[in-house]
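Example 5.3 — Gustatory receptor
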Amino acid sequence: MYLTYSRKSIRFLVPILKFSNVLALAPWYNFEKKTVASAKLFKLYAVMIALLTTTWSTYCLTVRLNVRKEIILLNYFLNSMVEITGLVTFLVTVLGSAFWNMDAWHKLIANLSFLEDRNNLNTSNSTDKSVFKNANSIFLMGTFYYIALYIFQYLSSDMPASLSSLVFFFYADFVATNIAYNIVLSITLKYKDLVSMLTDARGCSKNIRKVKQLYLKIDEVIEYFNNIFGLTILGIFAHLFSEALVGMSFTNYNYSHSLILIMMSCMYMLITVFCPVVLTFSCQAAFSESRNILMTCYKLEHDISPISWEAEELARLKYILVNRPPVFLAAGFFELDKRTNLGLLNTITTYFIVVAQYMSQSLS
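Solution (predicted structure tokens):
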């Protein structure tokens, strides 16, 4: 039944959240009772997952560094950085969902459910039956991609077991980004609903006031979103940056299996770059849709009297729209918008030049 839910209903996330519960990336939320289930047990489970993952990651990294004795010093550092950034990102997400972000998760889902109530935006019955637009189908395709990636790695590598942690951490990044992307897309659709509601509110101050209240409720959702995913998104960008440098460094060093290493790095980077890029563009789309609400306000001003109650409510709404635009943050370090991808590209290019120069000197 959930496979037909559109992103307009928070329940479309149920299958993805159920799967992420296994990895402890999100708390065990009960949609029927609208509360986090077994909070204390989940905290214990998250700590156990964190300890097991840390032990597993340390073992895998130690094996890889001992096997690749021919790697120069910089590559020891780069390979370690990929593993460490992946591990830290995973631990921050897991422990955050169990401890400091559990209440934020509850409030985020509760506010989204409130917005979907039939007395508010009335979007919970919308469906999306297209396979390539359905969130769960996209999630399954991404999962199969990582399974295929590990199979290719297992068949082509001389140390497949020690590389398993790399695939796991990149897959955890994918799951977290997938959840974040779909929540942002749900917010975008709710902004579209507000545009429609505001257009239909022509000449009615009560409806304009309701649009203002719902916009502020969405603003709370974004605040909880930033609290939950801020550090995770920052870690994912750091993980991507590390893997990009490792992939590029392979082109400057003559490994006996350099072609395989380059192919594997390209496969990692393809999906790893794709997820944050799509997330940043979805955040930009949400911002643009919120500006459509402001443009609708300006259009409505021409059709109502400047001394009416409607004009006063419209002025208040405009003030909120101008002073409280939606801002998606990576732990406060930078905003997620179209400029983020260009900044990431510039940073990777700059450090690639530094890495290439260092490796050329080392090889000579």
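Remark. The longest strand covers residues 29-30.
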